[in-house]
Amino acid sequence: MSEPPPAPQISPDGKFYWDGQAWQPMPTSGPAPAPPAEPRVLSSLPGIKLTLYPNRVEIEQGMLLTKKRETILLRSVTDVSVPALQNRLTITTSDGKKHTYNCMNAKAAKEAIIANL
């Protein structure tokens, strides 16, 4: 079974995405977005960093040469959960995928993400 394509890279201001050849404007719908807020690091451990932006969560995994970046748009988040007594954050997206990360303060990360939905 083939892997789904990776999420597009999004500009720091959240207004553009990289289509592999050029920066394209993000599709707009609904009211104008609020002015960008400062990014908030939710968890930073060796090998994983979760950063919350007003419109997305960025996850960096790996070390130096093997670093991988994943972006989850907040508008696609349908559920955020933390199993009891675990520092594991699970973000479920509208396509049914569950993205699970081991992180410090998983409960606080969950609350911060939910507050931005």
Question: How does this structure look, described?
Answer:
The radius of gyration is 14 Å and the shape is globular. The protein has a domain at 36-116: Pleckstrin-homology domain (PH domain)/Phosphotyrosine-binding domain (PTB) (PH-domain like). Strand 6 (56-61) and strand 7 (68-73) form a beta hairpin. It has one helix at residues 106-116; strands at 9-10, 16-18, 23-25, 40-45, 48-52, 56-61, 68-73, 77-81, 88-93, 98-102. It is mostly beta strands and 117 residues long. The mean pLDDT is 83.
> Which geometry do the CA atoms define?
globular
Please tell me the overall pLDDT. 83
Strand content: 35-45%
CATH topology of the domain at 36-116: PH-domain like
**Approximate helicity band:** under 10%
Number of helices: 1
Q: Give the termini distance in whole angstroms.
A: 32 Å
Q: Order of strands across the biggest sheet?
A: 4-5-6-7
How many beta-strand segments?
A: 10
Oligomer: single chain
Main sheet summary:
4 strands, antiparallel
CATH class of the domain at 36-116: Mainly Beta
CATH superfamily of the domain at 36-116: Pleckstrin-homology domain (PH domain)/Phosphotyrosine-binding domain (PTB)
Question: Can you give me a brief rundown of this structure?
Answer:
The chain is mainly beta. It has one helix and ten strands; from the N terminus they run E-E-E-E-E-E-E-E-E-E-H. It has one helix spanning 106-116; strands at residues 9-10, 16-18, 23-25, 40-45, 48-52, 56-61, 68-73, 77-81, 88-93, 98-102.
